[in-house]
Amino acid sequence: MPELPEVESYRRLAERTVGRRVGEVQLRDRRYLRGGTEPDELQQVLHGAQIAGARRIGKLLVLDLGDAGAGRRLGVRFGMTGRLQVDDQLGVDRLLHASDRLEPAWQRFAVRFTDGGLLAVHDPRLLGGVSLDPDEAALGPDAATVTPAALARALQGSTTALKARLLDQSRLAGVGNLLADEILWRASLAPARPAGSLSPAELRRLHRRLHQTLVELLERGGSHLGELVPHRTPGGRCPRDGGELRRATVGGRTTWWCPTHQR
After folding, report:
1. Domain count of the chain?
2. Quick check: is 163 catalytic?
3. Catalytic site includes residue 2
4. What is the domain extent for residue 86?
């Protein structure tokens, strides 16, 4: 599933479109539009626009527009199964819960550039979407660059489960289910404990592990390549201490952790 490492890979791939001009907009299913964006408006804004920049905040990819679309932005969210293609290259080789196939019907949105190339989003389950001028202010600080103080503010005083707070994109942008389990496992913190219960030392450890995990998994190629992921299965054992992993639902998501060392 696309989490921060995957979307950062998509952003780097999307940089290849900067300076290129949109010649055609293809929308196979209007259900892929989000945020009140209408098909006619999408066509009007994108056609003839030049891609001025490619940014990421959390799991949101933002393409800044120039020329005909100056001052407007295209936001792309990838849900659980969205993959980005630019010309003949995909941003990631595979997603954990998505097919490796590229069926024509799964290409939900594409822009073709006047130089003959394209940018396309493939999404089998229609869980992502595109929108004009997405509300970036609704997102919390980006998980890749959040400071210790900002992370502490996102958690302080909350009785919500720690994992649920990490998954709240309005508090911290970019962490998904796999990353949350991996980060908390590395930080030796139980996912269900209250978010506001962390000591200063635990907050520092969480911030350190958050940063290290994102750097490592971006280098490895995705959020599904963490140390805990292969063991998230019934009977799975903790790769650190050999204890049997426990499964529960935390924050509405399937959660795996090691009760031996995560407290």
Report:
1. 2
2. no
3. yes
4. 4-137
